Amino acid sequence: MFLPKYPDNPTPPPAHTHTPADPMPARRPLPPVAIDRNTVLALVVGGVVLTALLAAVAVTAISVAIAAVVLRSMLRDHNRR
What's 15's DSSP letter? Predict the structure, then answer.
């Protein structure tokens, strides 16, 4: 009753098979890059400085938000009296 119905003949394979027109061109190797200790040190120091600046901006934003909430609360209490 609930058995699937299969077609009598399976579908034929596609008539056209895909063949690539051109093989991938050979890639030239990249020139060697000299990475010395000073470069790594400069990248690490730059990352630390940028992270510290981002943390300072986040702390400043939180401080300004808290100050705004406190001032709004003080002004609301002042207007009620």
Answer: S
pLDDT at 20 over 70: no
Locus of tokens 């394979």: 13
Based on C-alpha coordinates, what's the Rg of the chain?
Answer: 34
Euclidean distance between CA atoms 62 and 68, whole angstroms: 10
Diameter of the chain by CA atoms?
A: 90
**Token pair recorded at residue 10:** 């399976």
Helix (H) or strand (E) holding 79: helix 37-80
> Which tokens is 45 given?
């120091």
Task: Give first-to-last CA distance, the chain, whole Å.
Answer: 82
The DSSP result for 35-74, as a single string, is --HHHHHHHHHHHHHHHHHHHHHHHHHHHHHHHHHHHHHH
Its pTM surpasses 0.85: no
